[in-house]
Design goal:
Elements lengths: L5 H10 L6 E5 L2 E4 H15 L4 E5 L4 H12 L3 E5 L5 H11 L3 E4 L1 H7 L7 E4 L8 E3 L13 E6 L9 E5 H8 L14 E7 L6 H12 L2 E5 L5 H11 L3 E3 L2 H8 L13 E4 L6 H11 L3 E7 L4 E5 L2 H11 L5 E2 L4 E5 L12 E6 L10 E9 L5 E6 L4 E3 L2 E3 L1 H9 L4 E11 L3 E10 L5 H9 L10 E5 L12 H10 L1
Parallel strand pairs: 1-11, 3-4, 3-5, 4-8, 5-6, 10-11, 12-13, 13-14, 24-25
Antiparallel strand pairs: 1-2, 6-7, 8-9, 14-15, 15-16, 17-18, 18-19, 19-20, 21-22, 23-24
Helix pairs in contact: 2-3, 9-10
Length: 484
């Protein structure tokens, strides 16, 4: 276990910096760093001998403290999503065979078999003493040296899988490439951040750890909900916020005004594609630049993104790009044989994340991309989601973007459906903000897409199924059309 890692030392230093200072606001109540530290230390003392510790993570201060406590003890947090459906969660827990599981009393009662030989720690609230239920160990002792978090992927196209994120990877992402020598803060940082990303997703863990390592207090939201988010923005006046594309589009098409978001100087957006049209519409409405980025759970954070300086200089010429390499990452585009391609040639994106160190190998992604001579990256769609319709290749993201360009469409998801004659055809699920006939949507698409790209079916739903990270759950969308 990494009991003397710079990330652990930084967390410990911040928790003890100004114990009585405000740390987390949740549901209208502030909690201090001392209160966070007290529960974190209790979790650390229980979990230090267990190696891997499962946490049924929810967006509450107590769960934040539990996450920090396992890291303080040098253990490995195994992320368990308590919102995936009871049967799937129980099967996941059974397969994991963890020696220790932390969660709310209700989650533990519903999801953890009391006859299992697993110790549980119930955390009712940040200021409540955790309730430990000991059990004789009958679990796999599978310690993972150096692994901080076994993080769930978003599960966009299939069941989520776990990715091992090391202490080094997280420290590089939230502190910087000089994390081993970077000095800890000497006083709490001014301003209040807003964390609305779920802790079961890398975005939530990253934001929380970033705030803690910067000694910055933050308002923790259970989930993104427009009114609660807007209220937090008005009260805390952050200079920067992070919104996934679905949330950004919700803000864009709301009745919020420039005055509501007056403090914000930039919005960062990642986890899913965001069209340049939506980014520009947001900037036109609110006067706030949108800085898109490219990241993946496997990388332990971001590997490309826009800086404000780059945006001001290059956006007009390079709109739609996800920016340039960040955090020491290297990016290239290769053909199917792995041969690197030149500027502006489309191919498969490969990445050497800076979080993995200078000796890292190139990682092949499933994303099609092009990189120009200045290093700006455009994501063209996922190669493994391409729909081959009668020999023609259809990229779902291009069809989705065309649908979302219609003023009545709030969001769209596009998948392939088997077809006896053509192999596959594109079909779309749309979530509307105002009524429109599907015939009108088809006509809209015919002016923007090739004939073979136009979906053979469009289903209007109240809400597109989504993963915790806010991406469309394409597996569920695909099953919807299979059963339709």
């Amino acid at each position: 276990m990494s009991t003397d890692h710079p990330l652990r030392r930084r967390i410990s230093a911040v928790l003890g910096l100004q114990p009585d200072a405000r740390a987390i606001e949740y549901d209208g109540q502030w909690f201090s760093w001392a209160q966070v530290n007290e529960l974190a230390q209790r979790i650390a003392s229980v979990g230090v001998d267990h190696g891997q510790v499962g946490i049924l993570l929810r967006n509450t201060p107590a769960h934040v403290a539990a996450l920090l406590g396992v890291l303080l003890g040098g253990g490995t947090v195994v992320v368990i999503n308590p919102s995936r459906g009871d049967d799937r969660i129980k099967a996941d827990i059974e397969d994991l065979r963890l020696p220790l599981i932390v969660g709310s009393p209700a989650d533990l009662e519903a999801l953890v078999d009391p006859t299992d030989h697993t110790t549980t720690v119930a955390i009712a609230g940040l200021t409540d003493a955790p309730q430990v239920s000991s059990a004789a160990p009958d679990t796999v002792d599978d310690r993972r040296a150096g692994v901080a978090v076994r993080m769930l992927t978003s599960g966009t196209t299939g069941p989520p899988k776990r990715i091992d994120l090391t202490y080094d990877m997280l420290a590089c992402s939230v502190i910087g490439t000089d994390y081993d020598s970077a000095p800890a803060p000497t006083q709490p940082r001014a301003g209040v951040a807003i964390v609305n990303a779920p802790l079961v997703h890398i975005g939530g863990v990253f934001r929380v750890l970033q705030c803690v390592c910067e000694a910055r207090s933050f308002a923790l939201l259970e989930r993104f909900e427009l009114r609660r988010w807007a209220d937090a923005v008005r009260r805390h006046r952050p200079r920067a916020v992070s919104l996934v594309p679905a949330a950004l589009r919700t803000v864009l098409h709301s009745d919020l005004t420039r005055d509501d978001l007056a403090s914000i100087r930039a919005v960062t957006s990642g986890t899913a594609p965001l069209s340049a049209d939506d980014a520009d519409a947001f900037t036109a409405k609110f006067g706030i630049p949108v800085l898109t980025s490219y990241a993946a759970t496997e990388f332990g954070g971001g590997v490309a993104g826009w800086s404000l300086a780059d945006y001001q200089r290059y956006w007009a010429a390079k709109r739609g790009s996800v920016g340039r390499a960040t955090l020491g990452a290297q990016l290239r585009v290769v053909d199917d044989a792995g041969v690197p391609l030149g500027p502006d040639q489309p191919g498969l994106l490969e990445v050497k994340p800076g979080q993995l160190g200078p000796s890292a190998d190139w990682l092949r992604t499933t994303d099609m991309a092009r990189i120009d001579a200045d290093g700006f990256v455009w994501i063209l769609g996922r190669a493994d989601q391409a729909i081959i319709r009668g020999g023609f290749k259809v990229m779902p993201d291009e069809v989705r973007a065309a649908l979302e360009s219609h003023p009545a469409v709030h969001a769209a998801a596009v998948v392939g459906r088997p077809d006896e004659r053509l192999g596959e055809t594109p079909v779309a699920m749309v979530e509307l903000r105002e009524h429109v006939e599907t015939v009108a949507l088809m006509e809209h698409l015919r002016t923007r897409l090739a004939r073979y790209e136009v979906p053979t079916d469009i289903a209007v739903v109240d809400q597109i199924p989504r993963t915790p990270s806010g991406k469309a759950d394409l597996g569920t969308v695909r099953r919807f059309f299979e059963h339709a």
